[in-house]
Every structure is written in structure tokens, then in C-alpha cells.
Amino acid sequence: MAVLVTGGAGYIGSHTVAELLDAKEEVIVLDNLEKGHREAVLGGKFIQADLRNIDEIRKVLKENDIEAVIHFAAYIEVGESVINPLKYYNNNVIASLNLLTAMQEAGVNKIVFSSTAATYGIPEQIPIKESDRTAPINPYGETKLTVEKMLKWADDAYGIKYAVLRYFNACGAHISGKIGEAHSPESHLIPIILQVAQGKRDEIKIFGSDYNTKDGTCVRDYIHVSDLSQAHVLALKNLRKGAESNTFNLGNGTGFSNKEVVEVARAVTGKTIKATDAPRRPGDPDILIASAEKAINILGWKPKYNDLNKIVETAWKWHSTHPNGYNG
Ligand code: UDP
Predict the structure, then answer these.
(1) Are 154 and 160 in contact (CB under 8 A)?
(2) Ligand 1: which residue has its CA nearest to atom 4?
(3) 203 and 95 co-located in one domain
(4) CB within 10 Å: which end of the chain, N or C, has fewer?
């Protein structure tokens, strides 16, 4: 039986497919390739389909023997979600509703769901625990939380078991250098900083310098994409063992300010990297740092990359060998 990976041609999806293949899992990737890259899928069967069309999902579930689903496919940009929230409800909520409906009809009862620290909004405490209040301050986080709630009721009613994985800031690239981060347009901090190092941009604009943090810039918890991917494999195995549905934070438990990230990138690349202060981006909390004790204790998760220098090195290896992402 196969594991269906939606959004498996995307950044975290493609790295998880790589981990699943290493773990000798049978993998089927479903991606509409709106944001994903066919070349990022290193193996398994590939199906181009759109989750917003439920009949396409029904067909995939009918024609393939699917044991479990790992659901990544979604829009992911906080800033864009504030400007165009309905786009996010459509792709993140409606698509997930379709997927769950088709799973329920086909009797597929295990799902690992790609969620986010943005579900917490302004944190009650640092580090953030899974039991803390969820009160998103942007539509991206709200759509992810909506799906989390849908999963809870679907478990109660139909027995679909889930692992919700709330990612903090995914970054870095596969150690092989074969796959990495390639968003277009790029909106994330580390790849944009590295584009400045490559001379593809003149400067990094730091959004907000008056936050309530050590240097006034936002603080985030950066976690390597392969460590995130490993957690998906463990969550799947845990569901197979009959685990109850559960929610896990995935982060390193350490925060870096935006200015500190620029410093790390300067050290790794040896480039000057011009940074300028710019206005705040809407929807950004001051500080997001995870407590990942639950994933460590229950899933046996062991993040390997706990040094931001090493993480940025893997990203730099990818970006410097693929200056145009998957286009060469
Ligand atoms: N950021 C920034 N300049 C940029 C892109 C991002 O200052 O060009 C900041 C952003 O405001 C946030 C942090 O970097 O404080 C991380 O943002 P990113 O979009 O990478 O991840 P998010 O936290 O939104 O998932």
C-alpha cells in the first residue's frame, strides 16, 4: 500500500518524499505543479491533480491502494494571505475538505497534516507548547487552524486518525544538494538573504525594527527541512502503531532575530549582504519559538541540525549550485 503525498513537489513535500523513499515506503505524489517542481520529486509515482477538484482526488484514491495521506498542498505566504484571504480559504480549506471527504468515502483513515506556528498568533508563553492558546493573527494561520479543527471532528465521527505537525521556520536544503527551496516569488527570509549574497538582489529589507525583542527585529525558530521531513515519517509510523490523533510542534527551541540570521548568512557565505530597515509586514508576531518536547518524547524525533550555521550552509550549497532553482 502507498502513502499519498499531496504537495509532494513543493519544498517540504519533496524533502519528505526523499525521506520516505529512504525509508523504503511506496510513495505516490499528487501535486498541481502551480508552485511545485516536477524535478523536485526524486522517486515514486507522480500524479498531476488539483485538490480543489474532488473528482480528481476520488479517482486517485480509487485507482491506487492508499494507506495514508501526508497533506502538504497549500498556499504558505503570511503577507499574501492578509492581502488575499479568500484565495487562502479556497486552496487551504476547501482543498483539505475535499481531501478528507474523499478519504472518508474511500476508507483511508490516517493523515499527517502540515500545519504551522502561525496557528498560535501572539504566543502566551515562550517556548510555545501545543496546549497553548491558538489565536491566529493572519489568514494563513487561520486556514491551517480551521483544517486542524476539521480533522478533530472527522476523527470523532469517522475515526480518521491524524498527526498535526506545526512547523516553525522551515529552512535549509537536502544534504545531497539535489533538492532545495525554490519559491517563486520568494518571500522567505533565508532564501532572500542568500539571493542578496548571490547578487540577484541588492539588499534584504528587514521588516520591522521596533518589535519587543533583543534587537527590535522578529525572532523565529529555524528548523532544517530534513529534520521536519523525518518527523513526518515518524508520525506516520506512530499512526500505524495505532496512536491516537495528536498535535506536535516542530522546531529547534532556539530563536534567532532577523538581524542575527543576516549575520549568520554573512559568515557562511563570506559576502557583505546589505540589509536595510523597512516597515513591519502585517501579520508578524514578535517571537515564535517552539517547545518540541512532545515530538521528541512521543515520536522519538531527533533533529540533527541544531546549528543555524550548518542549516544555512546546506541552503547556500543548494542556492549556489542552482542559482535559478529548478530551472538550472
Ligand atoms: N522577513 C524580512 N524580510 C524579508 C522576508 C522576511 O524581514 O524579505 C522577516 C519576516 O517579516 C519575519 C521573518 O523574516 O519576521 C521570517 O519570515 P518568513 O517569511 O521567512 O517566515 P514566516 O515566519 O512568515 O513563516
Answers:
(1) yes
(2) 189
(3) no
(4) C
